[in-house]
Design goal:
elongated, mainly alpha, Rossmann fold, 33 helices, five-stranded parallel sheet
Length: about 550
């Protein structure tokens, strides 16, 4: 099309108010020279809004290049529409290629008068793009009259539309919206994941509560998905997670602690400390609380940590020792000195937990304590596994304890033939749990091979040829049940025993684990006696 002729025709169409022919000219906009394009935009801007707005929108929808080259077109449309909203409202219910854009503007400009036309368009269109814009605009406008008609879309088999409806309902808020969401939620796992994604995006009190409750779901995939989403939400989720710590539901407490640990913000410290001060009866809650404090940027001298060293459970002592190591202060160190000064069975248990946890700062701080030093040297000589021994020998050498290094290296009486040890694999996304596995399995005379990521284990287990596998249940990407199912494709339960280790015990998880091929299920935190019982039960010793 000749640019000069096109320009003359466009000017004539504007003068005659012929919107159809003017639109036909604009469809060739990118074929014109820059001078002609600018003239067209200039002249169009001078026309009446009822004429200009539809043509500007037609240009935006049909020519992406025009918007890139002349970004002020969008600003012009919004400005004109704001002064003449009736033009937008009228076009919303008209079925056209530009319909979705009129709907979008209604939301951007918060045009309450557009709600009846938006509902009409909702009833009459099947265009997914238009429907998405309608849901978004009705959500922005907080249209309560739209709740019921939008809720009908929660029953269809279209995940994208369900996602947009949930977001819109969350933005509208109120009991009617919450009831509508509750009716749609819980139908099936894949649909529930869509709901959880919407909850994580909107982040209001209701959606965060729904996310936090999902972490105790009986479905592993849904539970892990909710935990990941809450971790991504971050600081905003801390209040609701902190509230969960004082629930009577231990699973909810444990999962909330895990998420607070992943978020990693100091704001989580006070509620976790408050929880520990109440000394929860459930040892898994206590263990996870200390593990959480060990991985949060804590407050120096937090004496609640020292109390964990006196816990009846060895795993909890281990977790408390690591938490102390990361938050050590002179006052806290002095208190621990007093706990181990008099040699006894109790002080020896405390000392061993400190050593096994590879607490560099704390161990060095106690090295001049006669009781600690005596136990440390004997333990290094007679019981410590090689990795633990290497850790401390390097630490002592770097800090001027050369004489002690030489003594331990010379007097070592550890007599284990690594080549004859049976290999046992452990898979868990908690480094602390893996360290406990290392200590316990070495004590029992096995060679531990540890994996933080299930994918790494699955890639190498055939070459390792373990005699037994321990796996966590709740792990991101690949759950323990998925891992067992993969192993059972090649190995029967009697060929490669697998033990599921989990923070919670419920019938759904247990049944799923046994159906997948688990030989046994045990709970965290575990100790040497429990692991020893597993080997004896499976006749592996």
């Amino acid at each position: 099309m000749d640019s000069k002729i096109a320009l003359e025709e466009f000017l004539f169409n504007c003068k005659e108010n012929d919107i159809i022919k003017a639109g036909l000219v604009l469809e060739h906009f990118d074929q014109f020279g820059e001078a002609q394009q600018r003239r067209i935009l200039f002249e169009l801007n001078k026309t009446d809004e009822a004429f200009a707005i539809p043509l500007f929108i037609h240009l935006i929808v049909t020519n992406e290049t025009a918007v890139i080259n002349y970004p002020t077109i969008v600003e012009t449309v919004l400005d004109k529409s704001g002064h003449h909203p009736d033009v937008i409202v009228k076009q919303i219910s008209v079925n056209s290629p530009e319909q979705f854009y009129y709907v979008k503007i209604a939301g951007l400009l918060h045009l309450k008068d557009a709600i009846p036309n938006l509902l009409e368009a909702l009833h009459n269109t099947s265009d997914e793009k238009v429907l998405i814009e309608i849901f978004q605009s009705l959500g922005i406008l907080k249209s309560t009259v739209a709740i019921k008609p939008m809720g009908a879309f929660l029953l269809i088999d279209n995940m994208q539309l369900i996602y947009q409806v949930v977001i819109a309902l969350l933005k509208i808020g109120g009991s009617e919206s919450r009831n509508m969401i509750a009716k749609g939620y819980g139908k099936a796992e894949n649909i529930d994941l869509v709901f959880l994604s919407a909850f994580a995006l909107v982040k209001n009190d209701f959606s965060l509560k729904m996310l936090s409750l999902a972490v105790k779901s009986g479905r592993v995939k849904q539970r892990n998905f909710a935990k990941v989403k809450l971790s991504e939400v971050g600081l905003v989720a801390i209040p609701i997670l902190s509230e969960n710590l004082f629930s009577n539901d231990t699973d909810l407490q444990i999962h909330s602690l895990n998420i607070l640990q992943d978020i990693g913000d100091p704001e989580a410290i006070p509620p976790v400390r408050k929880l520990l001060n109440r000394h929860p009866e459930n040892k898994n809650v206590r263990f996870t609380a200390y593990e959480t404090l060990a991985n949060l940027p804590g407050q120096k001298g937090d004496y609640v940590l020292a109390a964990g060293l006196a816990d009846d459970d060895d795993s909890i002592r281990f977790a408390a020792a690591q938490a102390i190591n990361n938050n050590l202060s002179p006052v806290l160190l002095s208190g621990i000195q007093n706990m181990i000064t008099v040699e006894s069975t109790e002080s020896n248990r405390i000392t061993r937990a400190i050593i096994d946890a590879q607490t560099s700062n704390l161990a060095l701080g106690l090295m001049e304590n006669p009781s600690f030093r005596k136990f440390f040297i004997e333990y290094m000589e007679k019981k410590a596994h090689q990795e633990l021994k290497d850790h401390y020998l390097n630490l002592l050498q770097q800090n001027g304890y050369t004489e002690m290094v030489n003594l331990i290296a010379t007097e070592s009486k550890i007599e284990k033939s690594v080549s004859t040890q049976k290999i046992v694999c452990a898979v868990d996304d908690s480094k602390m749990i893996l360290n406990i596995y290392r200590s316990v399995l070495n004590d029992l005379g096995y060679k531990p091979v540890l994996f933080e990521y299930p994918s790494e284990f699955l890639a190498s287990f055939k070459e390792i040829k373990p005699s037994l596998v321990f796996t966590d249940l709740n792990m991101p990407e690949i759950s323990g049940i998925n891992l067992i199912e993969t192993l059972r494709k090649d190995f029967k339960p009697e060929e490669l025993p697998v033990v599921m280790v989990t923070t919670q015990r419920n019938a759904i998880d247990d049944n799923s684990a046994y159906q997948a091929g688990a030989n046994r299920i045990i709970s965290k935190p575990f100790n040497l006696t429990q692991i020893k019982a597993v080997f004896e039960d499976l006749k592996l010793r």
